[in-house]
């Protein structure tokens, strides 16, 4: 299995097709189909060997699975999951699966020829991880190997990076509405990755910051959770194939967007600033050890009267003062925040993506590092 995600979709051999998804009434004998993965996954022995020897458990946002084949039907299997999956065949609009039942699913109605199937996990899964069992083909169909992508981008952040409620037409949302309108496949992370035909990881947690979570709420700040495959912190993440040329980070919204409370460890805003700056710099140094050749972009909105951007830019300045050269800070203003609970909308995601692409394009030879 190649741990990448093929973002350039194969065109179907014939254009006339109306694919649909349903549990198979009488599944035929199946053969596992190799697939690529974008995102952090934990492998375990499978519960359905028709789809391969391993199942994959995942929890960070934006995970996707993709396979290629020649034929008229393809199967995949999921575990019990509280998520929305977008299933895309070739270049057609995605077909949503909302809280799919565990077990096998058949995608049929395809014209004969070469196809790519891609499954995007578009919801956030902080409460519990989900599981994917794999793809499979019926007799007579031909597997095609998923390609390796040379470009890799890692995104680290909070709800803005997740794509929290970004498809919502209103700012007023219940928790259920936030869940239903979050679409990481349309967030700026996915837009930038598709623009560069790059594999990406979205290692972000809504409501969490560098040292402080939203309104002082409990939970691991992002730098504490980042080293692990899942949020339970039982398995360190280590994949020798994941060496991004670009790392994009936006953290500080949850540290600074609400007032301090008496029970919190920081008695003044200045103490919070000092702790944030020191912890962020340590996190960057850890990331640099993991990615010695990567170019880093730290970006921030103009929320909280500019406090977030001011603090993050201080961190970049301190890192540069220590000798770091492959880092830039990007301030992004003019966002409308019309999605759930004043979060970036799809239009805002496009604005963020365009600004990041402009900065990435300004870095000479940014993709040439191994």
List keywords for this structure.
370 residues; alpha+beta; seven-stranded antiparallel beta sheet; six-stranded antiparallel beta sheet; 8 helices; 18 strands; 22% helix; disordered N terminus
Q: What's the helix and strand layout?
A:
Blueprint: E1 20-22, E2 31-33, E3 36-38, E4 42-45, E5 54-58, E6 64-70, E7 74-78, E8 84-89, E9 95-98, E10 103-108, E11 114-121, E12 130-137, E13 142-144, E14 152-157, H1 159-162, H2 175-181, H3 188-195, E15 199-204, H4 222-225, E16 246-250, H5 253-256, H6 269-290, E17 295-300, H7 307-321, E18 327-331, H8 346-361
Helix pairs in contact: 3-8, 6-7
What can you tell me about this protein's structure?
This protein is an alpha+beta fold and 370 residues long. The protein has 8 helices and 18 strands. Strands 1, 2, 4, 5, 7, 10 and 12 form a 7-stranded antiparallel sheet that branches. Strands 3, 6, 8, 9, 11 and 13 form a 6-stranded antiparallel sheet that branches. A 5-stranded parallel sheet has the order 15-14-16-17-18, with helices on both faces. Helix 7 (307-321) links the parallel strand 17 (295-300) and strand 18 (327-331). Helix 3 crosses helix 8 and helix 6 (269-290) packs across helix 7. The model is unreliable at 1-16 (pLDDT under 50).
């Amino acid at each position: 299995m190649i741990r990448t995600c093929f973002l350039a979709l194969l065109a179907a051999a014939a254009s006339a097709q109306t694919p649909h998804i349903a549990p198979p009434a009488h599944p035929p004998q199946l053969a596992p189909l190799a697939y690529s993965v974008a995102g952090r996954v934990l492998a375990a022995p499978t519960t359905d060997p028709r789809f391969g020897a391993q199942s994959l458990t995942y929890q960070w946002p934006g995970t996707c699975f993709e396979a290629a084949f020649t034929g008229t039907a393809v199967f995949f299997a999921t575990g019990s999951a509280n998520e929305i999956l977008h299933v895309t065949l070739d270049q057609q609009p995605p077909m949503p699966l909302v809280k799919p039942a565990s077990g096998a699913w058949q995608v049929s109605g395809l014209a004969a020829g070469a196809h790519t199937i891609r499954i995007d996990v578009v919801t956030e899964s902080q409460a519990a991880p989900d599981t994917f069992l794999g793809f499979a083909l019926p007799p007579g169909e031909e597997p095609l190997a998923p390609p390796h992508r040379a470009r890799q981008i890692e995104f680290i952040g909070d709800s803005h990076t997740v794509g929290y409620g970004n498809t919502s037409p209103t700012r007023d949302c219940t928790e259920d509405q936030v869940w239903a309108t979050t679409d990481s496949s349309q967030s700026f992370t996915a837009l930038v990755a598709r623009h560069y035909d790059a594999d990406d990881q979205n290692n972000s947690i809504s409501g969490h910051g560098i040292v402080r979570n939203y309104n002082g709420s409990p939970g691991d700040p992002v730098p504490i959770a980042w080293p692990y495959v899942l949020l339970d912190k039982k398995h360190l993440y280590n994949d020798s194939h994941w060496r991004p040329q670009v790392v994009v980070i936006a953290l500080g919204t949850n540290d600074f967007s609400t007032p301090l409370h008496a029970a919190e460890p920081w008695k003044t805003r200045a103490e919070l600033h000092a702790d944030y700056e020191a912890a962020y710099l340590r996190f960057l140094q850890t990331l640099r050890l993991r990615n010695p050749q990567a170019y880093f972009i730290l970006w921030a909105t103009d929320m909280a009267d500019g406090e977030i951007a001011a603090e993050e830019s201080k961190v970049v300045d301190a890192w540069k003062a220590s000798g770091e050269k492959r880092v830039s800070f990007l301030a992004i203003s003019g966002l409308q925040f019309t999605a759930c609970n004043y979060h970036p909308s799809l239009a805002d995601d496009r604005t963020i993506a365009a600004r990041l692409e402009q900065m990435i394009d300004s870095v000479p030879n940014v993709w040439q590092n191994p």
